[in-house]
Amino acid sequence: MLYWDYAAAAPPYEEVVQTMEQIMKLHYANPSSLHKAGMEAGRLVRRAREVCAAAIGVKPEEILFTSGATESNNLAIKGAALQYESRGRHLVTTELEHPSVYESCLQLQQRGWEITFIAPDANGIVNPAAVAAAVRKDTVLVSVMHVNNEIGTVQPLKEIGALVKSANPRTLFHVDGVQGFGKLPVELNVWKADLYSLSPHKVRGPRGAGLLYVKEGVALAPLLTGGSHEEGLRAGTENVPAIVASAKAVRMSGEGRQQLYDQLVPLRDRLLHFLSGIPEFVVNSGEEGAPHIVHFSYPGMKGEVMARKLEELGMAVSTRSACSSRLAEPSRVLLSMGRSAREALGGIRISFGDKHTFEDITALEKALIKAVQDLKIAEGGVNK
Ligand code: PLP
């Protein structure tokens, strides 16, 4: 089976697996405990914080460990909303966001917050001027993702950050960086980002730890209350093995970013070229997008049916993001780009990483051709 679902979960580095095992066996003590073993666990968490901070060019005190980027996004949005409610009850985000951002905004909307959702253009790119035009005096936060998890488009964060801050300097800017980190440069200062979420398991780290950068001076209301862990912002005993192994993955993928980019772009471009030659497919991602995500639709054919067929042929792919793949509705992201419901139902996401080769792409191309033939026979022609 060839695995094409790196954007959902990337296989961990061998060093990450070893670190997890080693820490679980040797450093199981609670980092809050005052004995030597506890202090050693606490030292490991501190070191991990320094490593993660260095990887994105911030101060260790600005890094918060969570359970994953879903929690980081929830905390950034709801934590800022609750903390700064006296400034207003308005947020701005986009139609492209991951459910952990989108649903957090919808939850606030149900509680009386006003949310402006900005639609992207037909290529899946948000217009910075449209974001800025939505910012008001009472806008507490703007949240825009770096790379879309479904179609891989890259948002113009520099322009968005600059325009948001000139529209209202007090409005916080949150970036969901999950699909960009390890593939594209992270420029928090250039983007003027106040909050930034990162998910180690997308960059060959373990599940169970996430990161949230919180710029010095920005306050958040905690969502988890209890002990004084993470400076009181996130109560709960630290997941030391996942945190330490995450720091390893974040360092390694940050250092290997350019090399991975150079390796993936030719693979992606070859696949894009192939897909554009198949008349049944509509390609939804482009060469300006992230290097690891390719997305196409097969209008009239459900993505799940195509994905199952590809699995029979030895290819593990996704229909969109893993979190939404069980939904029967058309993709919200594709609809927001103006795609038809037929196109938005038939999406396939192929995402890859350093282990893939041109031979793998050749095998995938053959499987795609066979899948179209088989499905056409089975359905008696899907485009009718
Ligand atoms: N944001 C984006 C863009 C994602 O792709 C994902 C996961 O697919 C998340 C947030 C959530 O990350 P996690 O799996 O760490 O909760």
UniProtKB/TrEMBL annotation:
Domain Aminotransferase class V: 3-364
Pfam families given in the database record: Aminotran_5 (PF00266)
One annotated GO molecular function: catalytic activity
Alphabetical keyword list: Pyridoxal phosphate
Cofactor field: pyridoxal 5'-phosphate
InterPro entries: Aminotrans_V_dom, Cysteine_dSase, PyrdxlP-dep_Trfase, PyrdxlP-dep_Trfase_major, PyrdxlP-dep_Trfase_small
SUPFAM superfamilies: PLP-dependent transferases
Protein's name according to its UniProt entry: Cysteine desulfurase
